[in-house]
C-alpha cells in the first residue's frame, strides 16, 4: 500500500482512560496519519486524578514519553462527578488480578502532572449515582490546552482535530473561554447513541456524565463530527486479536504485550463482549 503524501493530521486527545481510552492513546500515538500534540484528561470513567495517572502510565509503558498530559476538569459543568468503577475498576485501569494494570511512572520521567484523588461513584446499566459535590471548575488545564492547540494551528496553518473520547466538559469550557479558537479546530467526539444506550435504554455514558457540556459544544458553531455508540460496535476486538497481541517472540510476550492482552481480557469480561479465557 503506498504511503500517503499528506502530512499527519494534528490531533489533541481529550480522554478519561479507562481501558478503551488507553487503546485510543496507543492508536493516536503510533498512527502514521496522526500527530498527537498532547492529551487532556477529564473526570468520567474515574476521578480526574486517577485518569490522569492512567494516561501517564500508558504513555510511559508504550514508549510515548514525549507526549504532554494536561489535567483537565474534575467535575461536570453543572453536576456532581460520577465514575464507572464496575467497568474500569477502582483505579480506572485495573488488571485481571485487581489493582492497577500498569506500574507507576518513575520519578523524573517528565510525563505530565500527577496527583491522587478519591474514588468516584459507580455506574450501572440503568443508573449513574454521584458522590458528594465537588469543588468549583478549574480552568487552568483548559488554558494550557488552548495555548497548545492555538500554537499548533498557527504553526501548521491548519485546523487541529480535538478528539474527545470522554465527557465534553473540557471542550465546552475551551469553546466558552476561548471562542476565537472555534476557527482553529475541528471536534470529533465519541458520545451519544442513535438507538440503545449503554447506561440506560437510550442514554450513553459520556453524554450522560455532562449533558450540559454536550449541549454547549453542539451549539458552539464549531465543526463537529459525532461518533455514536453504534459506530464503536463495528470495531470489536475478539479473543483472536487478544491472543495475537501476545505475539510469538522467543521467550514469551514482553511485559507491555502481556499488559495489553490483560487489558483486553479485563474489558471484555466487564462489558461482556466475549468470554475471556483463564
Automatic annotation (TrEMBL):
GO MF, one example: uridine nucleosidase activity
Keyword Cytoplasm: no
Presence of the UniProt keyword Translocase in the record: no
Source organism of the structure: Auxenochlorella protothecoides (Green microalga)
Protein family (similarity comment): Belongs to the IUNH family.
SUPFAM superfamilies reported in the protein's UniProt record: Nucleoside hydrolase
Keywords assigned by UniProt, alphabetized: Glycosidase, Hydrolase
Gene3D superfamilies associated with the record: Ribonucleoside hydrolase-like
Name of the molecule in the record: Inosine/uridine-preferring nucleoside hydrolase domain-containing protein
InterPro entries: I/U_nuclsd_hydro_CS, Inosine/uridine_hydrolase_dom, IUNH, Ribo_hydro-like
Residue ranges occupied by any Inosine/uridine-preferring nucleoside hydrolase domain in the UniProt entry: 11-270
CC annotations in GO: cytosol
Example GO BP: purine nucleoside catabolic process
Pfam families, per the entry: IU_nuc_hydro
Amino acid at each position: 500500500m503506498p504511503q500517503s503524501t499528506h502530512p499527519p493530521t494534528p490531533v489533541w486527545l481529550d480522554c478519561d482512560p479507562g481501558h478503551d481510552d488507553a487503546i485510543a492513546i496507543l492508536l493516536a500515538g503510533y498512527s502514521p496519519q496522526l500527530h498527537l500534540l498532547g492529551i487532556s484528561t477529564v473526570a468520567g470513567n474515574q476521578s480526574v486524578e486517577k485518569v490522569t495517572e492512567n494516561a501517564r502510565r500508558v504513555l510511559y509503558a508504550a514508549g510515548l514519553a514525549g507526549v504532554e498530559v494536561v489535567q483537565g476538569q474534575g467535575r461536570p459543568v453543572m453536576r456532581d462527578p460520577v465514575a464507572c468503577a464496575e467497568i474500569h475498576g477502582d483505579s480506572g485501569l485495573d488488571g485481571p488480578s485487581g489493582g492497577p494494570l500498569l506500574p507507576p511512572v518513575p520519578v523524573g520521567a517528565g510525563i505530565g502532572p500527577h496527583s491522587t484523588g478519591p474514588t468516584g461513584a459507580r455506574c450501572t446499566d440503568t443508573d449513574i449515582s454521584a458522590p458528594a459535590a465537588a469543588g468549583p471548575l478549574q480552568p487552568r488545564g483548559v488554558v494550557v490546552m488552548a495555548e497548545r492547540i492555538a500554537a499548533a494551528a498557527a504553526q501548521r496553518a491548519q485546523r487541529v482535530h480535538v478528539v474527545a473520547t470522554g465527557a465534553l466538559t473540557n471542550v465546552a469550557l475551551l469553546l466558552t473561554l476561548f471562542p476565537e479558537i472555534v476557527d482553529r479546530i475541528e471536534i470529533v467526539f465519541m458520545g451519544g447513541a442513535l438507538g440503545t444506550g449503554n447506561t440506560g435504554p437510550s442514554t450513553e455514558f459520556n453524554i450522560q456524565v455532562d449533558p450540559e457540556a454536550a449541549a454547549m459544544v453542539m451549539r458552539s458553531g464549531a465543526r463537529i463530527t459525532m461518533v455514536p455508540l453504534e459506530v464503536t460496535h463495528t470495531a470489536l476486538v475478539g479473543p483472536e486479536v487478544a491472543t495475537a497481541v501476545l505475539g510469538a517472540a522467543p521467550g514469551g510476550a514482553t511485559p507491555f504485550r502481556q499488559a495489553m492482552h490483560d487489558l483486553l481480557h479485563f474489558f471484555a469480561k466487564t462489558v461482556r463482549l466475549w468470554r475471556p479465557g483463564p
